[in-house]
Structure formats: structure tokens, C-alpha cells
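Hello,

Our lab assistant flagged a job as stuck in the queue for most of the afternoon. It eventually completed. Since we weren't sure the result was trustworthy after the delay, we are filing this so someone can double-check. Below is the sequence as submitted and the structure that was eventually returned. Let us know if re-running is recommended.
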Amino acid sequence: MRASVAPAIDLPRAAPQNIAMTEIFKGSFTQQEPIPEEGIAAALAVLRSGRLHRYNLVADEPGEVALLEREFAAWTGAKYALAVASGGYAMATALRALGVGPGERVLTNAFTLAPVPGAIASVGALPIFVGVTEALTIDLEDLAAKADQADVLMLSHMRGHMADMERLMEICHRAGLTVIEDCAHTMGAAWGATPSGRWGKVGCFSTQTYKHMNSGEGGFLVTDDDEVMARAILLSGSYMLFDRHGTVPPAEVFERVKYDTPNVSGRMDHLRAAILRPQLRVLAAQCERWNERYRVLETGLRGTPGLTVIERLARERYVGSSIQFLLLDWPAARIEEVIRRCLARGVELKWFGAAEPSGFTSRYDSWRYAPSTPLPASDRILRAILDMRLPLTFSLEDCAQIARIIRAEVGAAYQAQL
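-- returned structure --
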């Protein structure tokens, strides 16, 4: 549900002229909070043991990785969880576990990040791109129109925006589409009462530094399906030691699939699991802290001439670890001017409309390994998206200041083009 009232932070609708000319943000958009002390202590214990590998255990001890898998499965409400080396690995493993192979087509969002089509291409499959709406969610009309072109939908909850999941799943059930959820930006989010990652057959999560838990790189795969999890465990490099995992399907399931499933090693190690377990215990509180910051930014940007705030749907329980807004139908030169002016005042905005990929931003037409046809309605939206991280190292006052800067610079550029 949409959260209640934002904290009482000074959010002037129009900053005084002297502030607009001189206010500079001094924070870092890439500085994360430190790992909790409990995680540091657990990591040191692993390092002192010398036993970092996932199967390097003594007697019947479960080890950090298996404990983390049990805890993450319980946290999501899933029957099984597999801790892996990255979110991208989780997605590729989900595809392999479902039997997706070379030449097959997989539907996915036109608005996503490169690891999503990359995972599809890594198994030799071909991404088929589905359009994006002004709410930055997958276009359900376009999905319905293309549903007969594939057997699998790799659904990306890009930048934390969730579509109407009841309607989406209805479309997929009707067409016989199996859904894999990319939840890299929605760990802790939900649609209604159902958590992100629990709508489709498989949910894939990331614990890369800029996600909701930080292990540098890492991720999870969750599912309730016995055979999918058995295959995923074997794929992750179990060396037939599958009984040492945290959540294990029945032995007879492994007997059916163990000789037909290749080892593509990628399960997480004890060191990363050790620093993630304490973070999982405080994740709900961290998500609320992100949302406090998001609401301050959203309130400060609302009503800026020429700027479209992304309206969140009532049934979406989001995690605002980043914020996006649209400069719809603005000339590229004016958007570039806004980005330059904001950067000069310490505010880093990423743009999905640039002709060339830059940093973490790229578009469906950037991925030449995945041939695509133009999506004119989506192209209009992609050209308009500006994106900004909200690390928890920002205070609420920082967020209010950033909103004032963006508001002033967008407003100035908007007035200049009238």
C-alpha cells in the first residue's frame, strides 16, 4: 500500500533565487552504508577458519550459505531458496532449469538493464521485447499481443516498478507462459499481499552493492517447484553434495535429473553469506528508510513544470531505493542540459535516452546480440526517463536539497524552451 505522510522536511515549491544559484549537493551517489558489525564479525570468523567454499564444512554443521538459504526462503515465503554468485546467474539458471535452450524465444521488458537480456542470450535464447508504459511497468496490452510468441516471460520489475500482477498473471496463464521474475530492484516489495518473486514459477534476486542487501555481488533463486530447484542446485555446482544445501527437494527428484543436468558452478560462498545474514534481519526497516527518502524526493518534485512524476499504484508496496521521473517530449539537447546543470550542482542523473549506452543505462536497441523491432510508443518513454539512486547514506535533508536542485534546473530549462 502507498505509505502515509512524508516526514516534515522543508520542501519549498520554488527555491529563493540566491539558493537556486548557489546550493550545491556534496553527497556521494555511490557511497553505501557499511556492512553491519555483526556481518563483519561473521566474515572474520569465516576468514579465520579458511573454509570459504560452500561445501567446506565440518561434521554436520550447516554453514553460512545453507543457513542463509533457509532464512531467505522463510523471509520470502518460498519452499526453496538457492544462494548464488549474482542476480544474472540466478536468471540464467532459472532459464536452464526450465529447459530453455538455443533458438527459443523469451519475452522480456524493453525497459530493463543489460543482465536481463544477457541472461537470455547466455543460454542461446532470443529476447522478444515487450513495451513499457508511462508508469515504467511492462505494457500489458503489448504482452497480451505477443504472448503466443514464447513459452517464458522473464519479467523485470525494473527500478522497482511492479505492474498489475493479477492482470499480468491472468494473461500469462491464458497463454501458457511460465513467468520468471527479475526482482533485483524489488527485494522487500509486494503487489497486494504477495511478495515480489512469489508470483511466477521462479523469483530471482540480486545482492550486488547497489541493491537492497550488499555482498558486492551475489543473488538468490526462489521457487516452490521441486524439479526446478533440484536442477538449479545441480547447475550451481553441487558435485552431488545436494544434501548440504539449506532447502533441499526430495532425493527421488535428484535421481530423475542428476545425470541430465550440467554443472555450471555459481553457488554463493560462505564469506558473502556471512555478511548477508545480518542484513536480511534488518531488511524491512531498511526498506522503510528508503521509502522515507523516496517520499521526500517525490513530494519535492511534484508539480515541477515539464516534469512527470511516476505515480505508484495503490496495490504496490514498493521500495524506493531509486527514483525516476520523465521529461516527456523534451528535445534531447534540453535533457542533456538538465543533466549537465544538475551535475554541476552535485546531483547525478542517469538518462535512458542517450544514443549510446553509458554506465548502467542502455536500451533494448543497444543490445545488438538481441535483434529487435522498433517500439515507437516505448521509445518516446525511454527517451524521457531520468533516473537517480537513493543510497541510505543520504539524510532526509539531503533528499530535500536534491529535490530543490532538480526542480530549479528542470524549471529553468523548461522556461527556456517556451
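-- support follow-up --
The delay was a queue issue, not a problem with the job. The result is valid. Residues 131 and 141 are 9 Å apart (CA to CA). The longest helix spans residues 396-416.
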